[in-house]
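Design job #97: recover the sequence.
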């Protein structure tokens, strides 16, 4: 299956910004819808954002809508998550994932077959 590697996590103050990147292997990257999920300390994994294969359609969790932006560059096999106006509750391990199939939008973990290792984002107050 497709391998995914995230980068760009780190420590940021409240109100700051970070951009996460996720690079996929192989020549089938454009055939997958892509998503970002996160898991905070003591919390269950939750959906953050998803983007269609072409990049034309996006869907966001209510908690990040207006602050986060998902995008992709299929020529670079890369999906991004731009995070602005960060809050302490955004602190989590962020993972990217790929999903095959034609249903839209995709926002449940069972729909995604390929997962990255995750990158830590910490927002200090």
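Job complete. Output follows.
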């Amino acid at each position: 299956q497709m391998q995914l590697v995230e980068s760009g996590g780190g420590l940021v103050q409240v109100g700051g910004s970070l951009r996460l990147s996720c690079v996929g292997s192989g020549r089938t990257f454009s055939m997958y819808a892509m998503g970002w999920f996160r898991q905070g300390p003591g919390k269950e994994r939750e959906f953050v954002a998803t983007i269609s294969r072409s990049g034309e359609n996006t869907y966001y969790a209510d908690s990040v809508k207006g602050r986060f932006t998902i995008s992709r560059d299929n020529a670079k096999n890369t999906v991004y998550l731009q995070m602005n106006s960060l809050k302490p509750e955004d602190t989590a391990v962020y993972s990217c994932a790929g999903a095959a199939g034609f249903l839209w939008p995709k926002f449940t973990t069972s729909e995604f077959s390929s997962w990255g290792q995750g990158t830590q984002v910490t927002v200090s107050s």
